[in-house]
Amino acid sequence: MRKGILLVAVMVAVTLAFVGCQRGPAPDVAKKKFYTIGTGGVTGVYYPTGGAIAKIVNVKKKEYDIRLTVESTGGSVFNVNAIMAGDLEFGVVQSDRQFQAYNGYEGSEWAGKPQKDLRAIFTVHPESITLVAAVDAGINSLQDLKGKRVNIGNPGSGQRQNSIDALTAAGIDIEKDIKAEGIKASEAPGILQDGRIDAFFYTVGHPAGAIKEATSGTRKVKVIPIELPNSFYEKFSYYAPSVVPIQFYPGAANKEVAVPTFGVKATFVTSSKVDEKAVYAVTKEVFENFDTFKALHPAYSVLTKENMLEGMSAPIHDGAMKYYKEAGMK
Ligand code: GLU
Prior knowledge:
With 330 residues, this protein is an alpha/beta fold. It has helices at 2-23, 46-58, 61-64, 76-84, 95-103, 159-169, 188-193, 209-215, 230-235, 276-288, 290-294, 318-326, and strands at 34-38, 67-71, 90-94, 118-134, 149-151, 179-181, 199-204, 221-224, 240-245, 258-271. The protein has two domains: 33-126 and 265-326, D-Maltodextrin-Binding Protein, domain 2 (3-Layer(aba) Sandwich), CATH 3.40.190.10; 127-264, Periplasmic binding protein-like II (D-Maltodextrin-Binding Protein, domain 2, 3-Layer(aba) Sandwich). Strands 1, 2, 3, 4, 5, 6, 7, 8, 9 and 10 form a ten-stranded mixed beta sheet that branches. Glutamic acid binds at residues 40-41, 44-46, 75-76, 94, 127, 157-159, 203-205.
C-alpha cells in the first residue's frame, strides 16, 4: 500500500516537473482562468445580469484565456464577503452596500471593518425597494404592516437593511411590531401565494421574475407605495426616490402606473486582488458591445455608457480604469 502511494507521488512529481519544463515559467500560467460572478436569486435581475456579462465576455474566451461562470447567491452582502474572502472574483452588489462595505459604515454588516480591497467596475440597472402585499391583508402603506407577517429578506441579501431602514423610518420595530421573516427572495412569491406571509420586500430591477411570479398567482397582490420624508434621504445619502414601473406586472391589482418608493443601483464589483488583465477584458467587452449588452434585459433600457460610470463609491479597479482611459471615458 505504502509503496503504491509512493509510486503515485513520484509519478505526480515527475509529471508536474515535466509540465513545468514544457510550459516554462511564464507568469500567466499560474493565473486563474475561471472567474465566477456572484449574483442573487434566479428570479431576480442580478442572475441574468451575471449571465449577460458572462455571455458577452465568453465570446472572446480564447483571446483572453478567461472564462466567466455565474453563481446564484444570497445577494449583495454575501457577494461582497465572498469576493473579499477570495471565493468569488466578481459580483453584483447594490450601490448602498458597496458604499457601506468600502467605508465600514456604522450600522452595517461592515461597521468598523472597511473593505478596502473592494473595487468598482461599473454600475448597471436601477433597483427599487419593492413592497409586495396580498390585497386580502389590507395593506396600503408601511404603517399597515404592523402585526403582519413580512419577509424582510435573508441575511446576506441587499434588501434586508433597506426593509429595516424603511420600517424604522415608519416607526416600526422589526422585533416587536411585525412578524419578520428572513426568507430568500426567490421563495417569497410562493409563500405569499400560499398565505404564509402577508407581504415581502425585494430590492430589485424591473421587470423581475419574482415580482411576475408574485403578481400572477390566484391570491391577488399589489405593490405598496413607500413614501418617506426628506429627512430619510438626508440621513441616507445613498438612497434616492424611485418608482416601481407597474406596467411590467399586468397581474398586479394596482391601478397607478408608477408606484413611488426609493431606490439604489446595481453595481458590478471585484477585489483589488483580481488581476488587471481579467478586469480589463471584462470591462472592455461590456463597453465595446454596449448595444448587445443593453438588449439582453429590459431593465437595462435606461443605461448609457456615461451613467454606467455613475454611482460607484469604491475606487475603480485598475484594469477597468485602463479601459476607461483608453476609451477616453475618464
Ligand atoms: N438587490 C438584491 C440583493 O442585493 C438582489 C436583486 C437581484 O437579484 O436582482 O440582494
